[in-house]
């Protein structure tokens, strides 16, 4: 433990120094103009920003911005901050934070390696591969818009489950029955929610927050339901199968009824916490908009109805997958173990 702490203490300043260099030396790699702010002042509802363009000809620029139109982008700007501008140098697109992002990702990877060692590295590699597969899937959907988004994501789900099993649990956990079971319960959880939505005619579901999408919003939303079940399904299947396999190894004479009873006890302990984690992970993403609407005079009931209906449905889809993983795990163990 002391050795790990020493390694972390040694590498942390190095990571922060490299992140600082990335923040201040990477402007030349951007196509958009990057301005380093040297002066900020307020004038009659406008923010006047002066600074130097870092990645063009080094010219100084004075930019006047309407506070009401881009408050979220300019509220916390300070001297020495770097911002991305549009091509005609007339407005701020976003703040440049690549150095901060590099530092956070690198520290996360360092902690992952120190705590998880080889398995932590595999998990990070699996995360990168899954992200790459997702980007390729979305690119494919853009190139071939006639193919439904939902179909592309269903194919991606199968690939993602395989990659997740291999990266998180190694080649020893690569069992076709577990992968097939996970894929089936993810699709079943989605079909339950999909059928309910169709039966109710999407009543009570507020799609207003998806109004700016350039793709059919229903296909995008249905695809997000599948995402909610992939991680939950993989984790739950392995969480249940691993101890049940250990029970069979330690007690080869265990009966089917005893194994089922053990599986039920494990599921009772794990399922509530898994669903709670899923719920707070989804609902936390809506907190900024909820606070924004409440501060602008919306009632609590109207705000929650507007922003939580989609998130709650995603939670339900993931919860169905978690519940379905209990019988699926037991069936996989019983089939593989050949118990009577």
From TrEMBL:
Regions crossing the membrane: 99-116, 123-140, 146-166, 178-200, 220-241, 274-293, 313-335
Pfam family, one: YibE_F
Coiled-coil regions listed: none
InterPro entries membership: YibE_F
Origin superkingdom: Bacteria
Keywords: Membrane, Transmembrane, Transmembrane helix
Protein name (record): YibE/F-like protein
């Amino acid at each position: 433990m002391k050795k790990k702490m020493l390694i972390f203490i040694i590498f942390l300043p190095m990571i922060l120094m490299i992140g600082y260099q990335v923040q201040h030396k990477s402007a030349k790699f951007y196509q958009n103009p990057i301005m380093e702010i040297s002066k900020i002042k307020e004038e009659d509802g406008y923010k006047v920003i002066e600074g130097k363009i870092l990645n063009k000809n080094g010219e100084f620029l004075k930019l006047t911005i309407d506070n009401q139109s881009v408050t979220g982008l300019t509220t916390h700007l300070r001297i020495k901050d770097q911002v991305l501008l549009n091509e005609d140098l007339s407005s701020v697109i976003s703040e440049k934070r690549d150095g901060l992002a590099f530092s956070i990702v690198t520290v996360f990877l360092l902690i992952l390696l120190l705590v998880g060692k080889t398995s932590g590295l595999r998990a990070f590699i699996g995360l990168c591969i899954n992200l790459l597969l997702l980007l390729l899937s979305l690119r494919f959907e853009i190139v071939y818009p006639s193919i439904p988004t939902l179909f592309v994501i269903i194919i991606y789900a199968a690939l993602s489950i395989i990659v997740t099993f291999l990266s998180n649990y190694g080649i020893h956990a690569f069992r076709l029955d577990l992968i097939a079971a996970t894929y089936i319960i993810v699709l079943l959880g989605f079909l339950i929610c999909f059928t309910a939505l169709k039966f109710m005619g999407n009543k009570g579901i507020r799609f207003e927050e998806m109004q700016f999408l350039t793709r059919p919003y229903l296909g995008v939303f249905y695809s997000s339901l599948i995402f909610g079940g992939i991680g939950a399904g993989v984790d739950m299947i392995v969480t249940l199968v691993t101890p049940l396999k250990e029970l069979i190894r330690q007690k080869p004479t265990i009966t089917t009824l005893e194994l089922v009873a053990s599986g039920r006890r494990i599921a009772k302990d794990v399922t509530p916490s898994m669903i709670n984690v899923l719920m707070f992970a989804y609902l936390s993403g809506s907190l900024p908009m909820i606070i924004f609407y409440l501060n602008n005079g919306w009632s609590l009931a109207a705000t929650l109805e507007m922003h939580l209906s989609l998130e709650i449905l995603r939670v339900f889809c993931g919860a169905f997958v978690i519940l379905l993983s209990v019988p699926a795990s037991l069936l996989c163990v019983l089939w593989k173990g050949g118990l009577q």
